[in-house]
Structures are given as C-alpha cells and as structure tokens.
Amino acid sequence: MHIAMIGAGYVGLVSAACFSEFGHNVICVDKIKGKIDALKRGLIPIYEPELEALVAKNVEAGRLSFTDTVDDAVKEVEAIFIAVGTPSRRGDGHADLSFVFDAALDISRAMRGYTVIVTKSTVPVGTGDEVEKIIGNGSPGGEFDVVSNPEFLREGSAINDFMRPDRVVIGAHTARAREVMKQIYRPLFLIETPILYTDRNTAELIKYAANTFLATKITFINEIADLCEKIGADVQDVSKGMGLDGRIGGKFLHAGPGYGGSCFPKDTLALVRTAQSSGSPLRIVETVVDVNDKRKKSLVNKVKKVFGDKLMGRKIAILGLTFKPNTDDMRDSPSLELIPSLVADGAEVRAFDPKGMDEAKTLMDGVLWAENIYDAIRGSEMVIILTEWNEFRALDLKRVKKEMLKPIMLDLRNIYDPNEMANAGFQYYSIGRPPETV
C-alpha cells in the first residue's frame, strides 16, 4: 500500500520505517526542511536503537522516502497518518492540538480520492471528530474516513514494540476503513497479534488510560519506597512480592526518582484536564501528577541529607541525564530538577550521559560536561546514578573508589547491591532500602 506519514519526529519516523519494513511504500513529510534534508542524507534526528539501520535499509529498497511538501506526500496515497507533536499547552495543561489541526487542514487541500486519515498522535477524546470536521469543511464532497490508531512505543525499544506489539488498537466507524487498516497491519494479523477494533473516542481514551495507569504504578511504588525507608523494609522485595501476583505484574514497579519523558508527564496532565472539563475528575491521577512533580523537586534533599544540608563547593558526579536509558530524550527528566538545584546550592556538578549530552547542554547551565564515566567521577565526593544505562551497571568499583575524593554513591535506580557496595568500601545510599543494609 501507499502511505503518507505526516511528522518525522519520534513516532512518525519510527512508524514510517516500520511500515516500510512491512513492505508498504511510505513517504514521510515534515515541514522542517532542515530535518528532511538531513534524513535524505541518512542523518537520523533522534537516537533509537536499530532505527538508523532500518531507515537506511528501506530507503535503499525504495520503500521509504522524505519530503517537506504535504501536497507531494498525500496525493497518491491510500492512508495518511498524522504523527505530529501534542505537547502540553502552556498555562492550562491541555494537549496542544494545533499541529494536528494544521495537518488536517493541509490534508483536506491535497488528498485525492478515498483516503483513510489515521491519527497516531496522542490526542484527547473527541479529536478525531474535530479532524473529521476540518477535512470535511476543507474538502467538500471528498471521500474519507478518520481513524484513531494510538501508538504504544517505548523509547529505547520502539522498533520491537512496533513489529511485535502487545496489541493494536483501531478506532474506526466504517467497514471500509477497518479493511484498509487490516491491510496496513496485515503482517501483524499473520502472527496473530491481538487487534482491538473499537470506536474513535474509545481508542483515543485507551491510550491515555494505559499511560496514566503505568504512571500510577510508578508513583505508587515510589511512595511505598518512601515508606520502606521510614519503617526499615526493602522496596525491591516488596515489588517482587507484589509483581508475582498475576493480577498486578512486575512491570513498572521499580522505585526511582520519578517518571519523565515525552509521554507520561503530558498525558497524565492532559487526561486530568479532560476529566475536569467533562465534570468527571480523576482524583487518583491528579494525585499521581502532584506526587511525581514533588518527588523530582525533592531529590536534592537526599543529597543534602548526606552532606548535612551544606552543598557549597561539594564536587558531585552525575551519571545519566536522559529520563531512561537507550534514548537521547531529555523531556521532563529528573535530571532537569536535580542538577539545577545542586548548582543553585553551590555544588560543582560534572555530568555524563552516553546519548543525552548534546540536548542537556542546551537545557542546563553551570554544569561541567565529562567525556566519559571516569572523567565525571574523577575528584568527586559523591556519584549519583540517575539513569540506569547498562554501562553504569558494571562499574569498576576499585577504580571508581580510587578516582573519588570520598567513596559516596547515591544510587537512585537501585542497580547495585548494598552489601556488595559496603564490602567495596562505599558509603552507599539507594531508594527504599533499610539503613541497616546500607
């Protein structure tokens, strides 16, 4: 099939590459000419494992191409996916749908013949209805259907999530549109991937409900971790004991510094605003948003507790800047709360991240940027692990101790064993584990 993908950001580029790997002919369009020019030269604007090779393979095969002109992209296609950004709107927290509506208007002016317009961007309930109105008004008499097909991609494992998903959700109102979507996802039908057909509003809500539930699990276990620290329990054993219950499951029950990234912060807030506007507030989700925000802001207190509230002149190494490993995404990362607080209190911060350095440098001032792990650690009085990159899981502890002025580690991801760290001569602090084991 011939498909157009509007938006060459994270979701759009990954989806375009994977659809072309399915055998479809995909043209990816973005109005930012510099981005398209770079993609044509084989330069990928984001870091995602395996994405660069997948794009190159399908460009070479002639199945994937790029343009900065919507008219060129949508004229001869059977389906158009809208995969543009929906950031939180400043001032009220609602999702900013301006990019979605601009894409719908462009589509209305350029489409030819029956076309399925698919919203893949994360959008509030009712957005598909608005997109349908915009296209209908811009293309009177045009034949089209609007479908909701939310994405469920995890940064760092997006290719596998797309090619072998837990499920595909399709919100469509006509049999004709459902058949087009079935052909688009035919390779997944062949491997018996669960496909859920529903209406548009329900499909739009499924995405928000799923992300919000996962954010709630993270926030819940983080509060349990705080309780563990007060009463001398071990949050990792609590998580394991909970996760072995098949009704709960162990995923997203890992205590840490709070959730961040491109999805959970904006999606939880957008759902809160949608629910409030509908007169059916979600008190649990409101609390999740509040607790997570406060958690990230309070991280500096864990550092102050170690140093007796005096951070002036303290030399602190930060390992990990991105909100999670295997991505260069800095959006709403806990590092954006902790590091500026440390700097404001007079600490000397030296930081390193395998992929997030370039973006971090544009977001934070007063930070010394290290070239590698041990460059960051050298001469420090504390090393803080903020992101659980694999290269941080197997540090040469003898070398780390030798490089540091004081062997103090604050492990905000619980990737080391407290007893092993104590035996290695470290003053070790983690999340939700009792003082007597650290």
Q: Your description of this structure?
A:
This protein has 438 residues and is of the alpha/beta class. The protein has three domains: 197 residues, Rossmann fold (3-Layer(aba) Sandwich), CATH 3.40.50; 88 residues, N-(1-d-carboxylethyl)-l-norvaline Dehydrogenase, domain 2, CATH 1.10.1040; 140 residues, 3-Layer(aba) Sandwich (Rossmann fold). 45% of the residues lie in helices and 13% in strands. Strands 3-2-1-4-5-6 form a six-stranded parallel β-sheet, sandwiched between helices. The model has no long low-confidence stretch (mean pLDDT 95).
Lay out the secondary structure:
Blueprint: E1 2-6, H1 10-21, E2 25-29, H2 33-40, H3 51-60, E3 64-67, H4 70-74, E4 79-82, H5 98-110, E5 115-119, H6 127-138, E6 144-148, H7 158-163, E7 168-171, H8 175-184, H9 186-190, E8 195-198, H10 200-231, H11 235-243, H12 264-277, H13 283-297, H14 299-307, E9 315-319, H15 335-344, E10 348-352, H16 357-363, E11 368-369, H17 373-377, E12 382-385, H18 397-403, E13 408-411, H19 418-423, E14 427-429
Parallel strand pairs: 1-2, 1-4, 2-3, 4-5, 5-6, 7-8, 9-10, 9-12, 10-11, 12-13, 13-14
Helix pairs in contact: 1-3, 5-6, 10-12, 10-13, 12-13
